Amino acid sequence: MSLTSALNTALFGLNYNQKQLDVTAANVANAETVGYSTKTIAANVFYDGAGNVSGILSSTINRAVDETVQKSYFKSLSETNYATEIATAAGRLDELFGTLGDGLGLNSLMSDLNNALSTLVNDPSSYAAQQDVIGTAQSLAYQLNSAYETINTMRETADNGLKEQAEDVNSILNSIEDLDARILEARNVQQSVADLEDQRDRYVEQLSGLLDVVVTEEDSGTLLIRTRNGNQLLANNQASTVSFEPSATLRAGIEGNSIMVTTPGGTRFDLISSSSSGSIKALAEVRDEILVEAQAQLDTLAAEVSLAFSNVTVEGEETTVGVEEGYTLDVSGLRAGNTIALEYVDSAGDTQNVSFVAVTDPALLPLDDTATSRSGDTVYGVDISSGDPADTITQIMAALAATDLAVSNDGSDNLRILGDTAANTTVESLSANITPTGNTDEGLGLSVFVDMRDGQETFTDHLEKGGERLGYASGISVNTALLADSSLLVTYQTSPANSQNDSSRPQYLLGQLSGKAIAFDPDAGIGSAATPYEGTLLSYVNQVVAYQGNQASDTNAYAQAQETLTINLAVRYEESYSVNMDEELAFLVELQNAYAANARIMQAVDELFDVLLNTV
């Protein structure tokens, strides 16, 4: 090797050592800086034709980041944040509904009401027993009101959370767009972009907690960010615009507004429906599904306990006309929401169930079979707005025209349905479920609970205006007539008046609460359309409380498991890029030794040149 070559090699080495010393010193100085990744210098050595070092290119600074672990960690973040939001909501609902056996939940209040009615059955004339029933009913109504409003507040909180997180997404995308522009500029002048990429990773990390995004680095060094289903959030260093209008009102059963994205090209898409995990997706599900289902359970409970106490079943009278047998039913008492139930055996020997639902708005017709919770029934809507029973009967006749049944008006505006001996068709039962208009002289039923959302109204579960059941838990209250006169719990007949020691009405109310099997609306999450949950009100409220408890337990277990996974990935991710002080300090010593060696070579070359010049 010539002296010149040796001198060049030493100079190149000193230059490289100086740059590596700077980088290593920066590593040591930033060892505690969050998100700072270990940097290294990439050295490329060039040789001339004689095999001598002709140059060292050492301008590229690399980051020590394991991209495989990074991607797994970012993906896990979105799933963990999703699970955590869901578990938090489920936990709050569990606390709200109460726990079986804790004496504080809805099931305990229903049990207390059952016990109060049992006491009243044994001593109907007792004022204290009557007041106990009324007080317990008020507590139940208040708990339903309070729980419903609390859930609505939770929906509003989730809606506000979506607003804040939509703003966060906008800010993050704009920050990444700005960093990408700086990265492009730095690359054009061959400056290091490692620190800028560190900053960008922190923004991608934040974004990954909000959405399950797919991030790809382009050849230019900028990022392409898309939603899980491929919609564009950032491309060609241009960020899309994220917007959210807070939902003005979160009415019962109504979904809130969604987060909309507008790409630079003008394409719009729904961000929530484009995601499958992340805290944004979770908040939307909490607001529009989980909490709405919980409100539906409260509405179902409020509606069924009201109907159980107030409604009476009017059985059809057995009727024989010639050789045909069937039933005759008075339909004059039908109110919107009331139903007629028919069971018959057709000519093929199959049992058929038919339900007629009374409506006052003909625009609701025809009704779907899901309009009732009765399993396997065919549902027809009947417009009773005319107030004429004959018109109601005419509609029922038309609905059953295709059957072999003999359906007619008996001449006194009563519905008559007979079998057909020739076709082997028989009528098994015919009845109506009627809501009385008053508190006495219409049977044992009593409107213990009423709807106070628009002044006191008797709850009939009508389908008009979106359905009376929807949001009913927010307005259920004890009948003011009952608050004024507790003896109505016993008095069901005034002419002649029944005895105050007559337990008929309290016994009826008790039986409706704890003895009557009801088919409950599967849309509330308990049971299914094919097999709706059937049981007493007491058993249903236990099912609801248990359901919420199970949801809380399951979601919490999943959230904890997911959090453990994310923590493990976070540790692995941090280990992949964090500064190891021992290694860096040891490397500093190596660099110092190398620097000294290169300096010694230069000194030796200088001495040799002096000797050579002096010799000449």
Automatic annotation (TrEMBL):
Residues 574-614 form the Flagellar basal-body/hook protein C-terminal domain. Residues 7-36 form the Flagellar basal body rod protein N-terminal domain. One of its GO terms (cellular component) is extracellular region. Residues 162-213 form a coiled coil. GO terms for molecular function: structural molecule activity. PROSITE patterns: FLAGELLA_BB_ROD. Keywords: Bacterial flagellum, Cell projection, Cilium, Coiled coil, Flagellum, Secreted. InterPro entries: Flag_bb_rod_N (IPR001444), Flagellar_basal_body_rod_CS (IPR019776), Flg_bb/hook_C_dom (IPR010930), FlgK (IPR002371), FlgK_helical (IPR053927). It comes from the Bacteria. SUPFAM superfamilies: Phase 1 flagellin. NCBIfam families: flgK_ends. Belongs to the flagella basal body rod proteins family. PANTHER family: FLAGELLAR HOOK-ASSOCIATED PROTEIN 1. This is Flagellar hook-associated protein 1. It comes from Roseibium limicola.
